[in-house]
Known about the structure:
CATH class of the largest domain in chain A: Alpha Beta
Number of strands of chain A: 19
Number of domains of chain B: 3
Oligomer: heterodimer
CATH superfamily of the largest domain in chain A: Succinyl-CoA synthetase domains
Helix content of chain B: 40-55%
CATH superfamily of the largest domain in chain B: Succinyl-CoA synthetase domains
Distance between the termini of chain A: 39 Å
CATH topology of the largest domain in chain B: Rossmann fold
Strand content of chain A: 15-25%
Number of helices of chain B: 23
Number of domains of chain A: 3
Structural class of chain B: alpha/beta
CATH class of the largest domain in chain B: Alpha Beta
Strand content of chain B: 5-15%
CATH architecture of the largest domain in chain A: 3-Layer(aba) Sandwich
Largest sheet of chain A: 7 strands, antiparallel
Helix content of chain A: 25-40%
Structural class of chain A: alpha+beta
Largest sheet of chain B: 7 strands, mixed
CATH architecture of the largest domain in chain B: 3-Layer(aba) Sandwich
Radius of gyration of chain B: 40 Å
Strand order of the largest sheet of chain B: 3-4-2-1-5-6-7
Radius of gyration of chain A: 27 Å
Amino acid sequence: MAQKGIREYDAKRLVGKALAELQGRGPDFGARLVLVTPKTDLDRLEAEHPWLKAERLVAKPDQLFGKRGKNDLLCIDKQFEEVKAWIAERMGSEVTIGGTKGRLTHFLIEPFVPHEVEYYLAFTATRDADLIHFSSQGGVDIEDAWDTVMTIEVPILGDIAAYDIAAALPDIPNVEKVASFIEALYRVYADYHFAYLEFNPVAAVDGDLIPLDTVAKLDDTATFQCAEKWGRIEFPKPFGTSPTEEEAYIASLDEKTGASLKLTVLNPEGRVWLMVAGGGASVIYADTVVDLGFGDELANYGEYSGNPSTELTYEYAKTVLDLMTRTPDPEGRPKYLLIGGGIANFTDVAKTFTGIIKALEEYRDKLVENKVKIYVRRGGPNYKEGLEKMRRLGEELGVPIEVYGPETHMTHIVSLALKEKK
Amino acid sequence: MKDYELFTRDTKAFVYGSQTRAVQRMLDFDYMCRRDSPSVVAMITPERGGFEKFFWGTREIRIPRIRSIGEAVDLFPAADVLVNFASQRSAFDVTMEALEADTIWTIAVIAEGVPERQARILAAAAKEKRKWIIGPATVGGIKAGAFKIGNTAGTMENIRMAKLYRPGSVGFVSVSGGMSNEAYNIIARTTDGLNEGIAIGGDAYPGSTLLDHLLRYEKNPEIKLLVCLGEVGGTAEYEIAEAMKDGRIKKPLVIWVTGTCAKVLPGQVQFGHAGAKAGSEIETADAKNAALREAGAVVPDSFDDYHLRIKETYERLVADGTITPAVDFDPPQIPMDYKQAVAEGLIRRPTHFVSTICDERGEVHSYAGVPIDDVIEERYGIGGVIGLLWFKRVIPPHAREFLEMVIQIIADHGPAVSGAHNTIVAARAGKDLLSSLVSGILTIGPRFGGAVNGAAEHFLYGLRSNLSPREFVDAMKKKNVRIQGIGHRLHTVENPDKRVEILKGFAKENFRATPLLDYALSVEEVTTKKKANLILNVDGCIGVLLVDLLKELGFGDDEIDRMIAMGTFNALFVLGRSIGLIGHYFDQNRLEQGLYRHPLDDILYDVPERPEEVG
Lengths: 422, 615
């Protein structure tokens, strides 16, 4: 949704290609890049990319995390054979980056660029303007040297051609050429719907700018306009994200439908489980659990919305119930299932409850075994019938179910459940 | 209209897109508010002009469909709102065009997934022109008792429950459209009601911000209490805190920023909204709630107290005389939609049509109750389908096979017969498939192709009247009626028609009994004694065997008579022969045959020099 990080490989590929087209000249650094994945046969690479043999090279992980130098994950100015060994040694290994654990699976190989000057250059957006940030002190932790950064503000309705970029730049060699590069890069940033584009550092070789480290986000809602410009683009999951089987299953259901189904398991041992309709409401339920001081007991975050079919709601509910009832609380304490939601606009409450009720019926024994207490709160079309069904279900199942409608404050069931918990 | 007002009871709006349900909901709201006239003056639908019918209470009205914004603006200069339902792809272009129109001042952009750069351009372009954009990615908003954008506030039942048909004292603005119904419900239960509510949309760059609308509410003397629901991500809530500090907002504000749970979630969880993600500490919900509290806003400890803080603040304003609670009234009933009333079992109505052979309403169509999937899977064939749709019976395999044999036999009979001839002449006159086919089919009747029906009728008469074959032949002779189904141009007893032999053989082998065929054959014995070519021909054979088959399938004499009267047997001829006629049409087309003109020397011209004068 909207801003999505892309690999450095893709960022350089796009920027290089666009720059070459825009300026009508090289160097097209986008053409000399290799992305190594677990499926890549390292021994066959040189046949496809002869330059690998001819050049000194750089290799680094390409998985949406930075600070690779500090984490000793850079292989600089090496022959291809050395690079191969370096990658082979690290492929699939587990590393911890800024507290997040994950496996190394993607590496970028590119030519080593001999250079003496490094700059910082970034393009960002505010509501009213695009910002071009430049510093002659590249390759450092830029936050620490922010006073060296100058910023050009281009109003969103403005035209980059109207700006004298060179005049705004500090005293650097080849300033006109650098300025024309920045203007071209700005156009790429805007035309290709980048939401964020940072080069830190970018090397200057006779006034030509060549990105060394690149961080980029694209606005994926522009896919309908940019599919051809972008080519085959991948939006990888953030580093260290490996969805559980259940999360992956819900994500696969979500992809197949116009409705929305989301599930993140936070703490499978937690005793407060949410099954909430609506994106806005689901956040507020999770908030309230946390704000009332029970964040450590919050088992999951998720939502279903957009009028999912009975079948999808059933699958969703079953997945949550299954996770919830795998093992009873070791201390024999009850668990709480909050079937919540605001007042739906046009979603038929009775209909969506049908799927949930079917799943609850199937899990009756496990619900009893796990001492589950259920709290329901919902409004919207047909809510009376939906709530009545839930009430009757409680009687039939012998599972405690408390049911509330719009006359009760939306999150009241959270405090009801948690009060009991104390 | 005051500069802080976007909507009044007189607001006129365009709806862009074929959103008939949304328009009806807007009109129902207008009616409930007792507006003098509907708020929607036209739908703008590039794909189609004309008009659309809607209800105004119980009465039906027409609302024009106009193909372009330009045309719409010219026709309705009083309309200053555009509710833009254009898709993600075209939302930008439509909105830009509307911004250019002098008379449109407020545009609600409903589409989700408008690219951020486009949304930023829209926001800036609107600002330059001092116009308002609500959205993108929003349900819209509502001015209680005055105007409703699209699908805002859900069902009429909900609108009634939340008292949105008349203005109260509360101005509400939120990011989320999904939570706005809930908020209107809370406001209705804790105060004298909503005055105006806007959902700005969950994207990173909404066309108008929370603060923009709060500042409008601040200026609006009808609004005494501000209520807001913010969201983690972005810094819009700090603008509100600033405005409170520098005195641009003086009215009491109850606000809660949602997303406080983000701190316990792993970093990569993206909430439903594109903008709902904290890029840094200051964008967290906790930091924003703290800043707002410090700036003097009423901020609850959690959403669980939100309604209590609103209630307290409202009661304080009533107590100090700032608010005189709005007077309620009983809004007019909105008639329930027919469909919904039927669904809920509240009304019934006699039907004007009845059908017993086919039902297309379920997921799978059915022929006489047999799902079409089964028809294909169980190989009903053309014969089986005729059994279902003509006779409403599942007929046995030999009956299906017989019907298909008949169709194959009568599919064509050469280009010279009248049906094919007509089709060919029509085709050569450049007429289309249907016209050519129909000109052939229309020749089918008593003289051409009607013998099947006629034969069945004649032989049945003989058999039922207990006439011996000889008596039957004599009786027909006496009536001066040629027995249908007897006689052939070429075939004789010695040189039998192979087709007839096959049909007879099949019937003898597969039918339980063939009483009418047997009778016809005994009649044939009589007639062929007179003349060798007076045999039972193929039409006659088909006719009598169909009767035998129908009897075997359990149809009574009355039913069979009715079928003959209806032309059921001819129908088989029409069906089969259409295959041939269509073939002739294609044939003539492929051959590129020109217009046919009958040779003059083939016509006897016997026209008198002068017509006889009479009278």
